[in-house]
Design a protein that fits this description.
Layout (H helix, E strand, L loop, with lengths): L25 E12 L2 H9 L8 H14 L1 H4 L8 E9 L6 E12 L4 H19 L7 E11 L6 E2 L4
Length: 163
């Protein structure tokens, strides 16, 4: 670890992958979320299954998020590739008719956490919703990509306070 506490830099300031070889393997989980803001008509079409000629928007976005979580080590520089034990991507419909909430729960038994995998999963799932619906709503906004909670590992648990 460098003097400023950032672990992806060596003493000379060069980027490096952190050596986690001495850490114990533990059960680790992370939950992340994102919000896709769209026209209420777009959300209704997603719920009705009429938003895209490409197929079921949420089914494809779920699969894309799961696949992305599995590839996080290839996408994020210096991120360790992890043998994920489970990935779940789910969608909910808040009271606001212009929103869809995306949530990913990722689990691993390893030496490092899965926060990046959960964040990658929700990001790619939200991007997939955009991609599949852009023909009907180019004004969609992806927002609030954030870690909701994590458990396991040396840094201890984290839970985002309720808004």
């Amino acid at each position: 670890m460098s003097a400023d506490g950032l672990t992806h830099f060596d003493a000379a300031g060069a980027a490096r992958m952190v050596d986690v070889g001495a850490k114990a393997e533990t059960d680790r989980t992370a939950v992340a979320s994102a919000v896709v803001r769209m026209l209420p008509e777009t959300r209704q079409r997603i719920q009705d299954g009429t938003a895209s000629k490409k197929g079921d928007v949420l089914a494809v976005a779920r699969l894309a998020g799961i696949m992305a979580a599995k590839k996080t080590g290839d996408l994020i520089p210096l991120c360790h590739p992890l043998p994920l034990t489970s990935v779940a991507v789910d969608f909910s419909f808040p009271d606001d008719p212009a929103l869809i909430r995306v949530e990913a729960r990722v689990r691993v038994f390893a030496r490092t956490g899965v926060e990046m995998e959960a964040l990658t999963a929700v990001s790619v799932a939200a991007l997939t919703v955009y991609d599949m619906c852009k023909a009907v709503d180019r004004g969609m906004i992806l927002e609030r990509v954030q870690l909701e909670e994590k458990a396991g590992g040396q840094s201890g648990p984290f839970r985002r306070p309720a808004d």
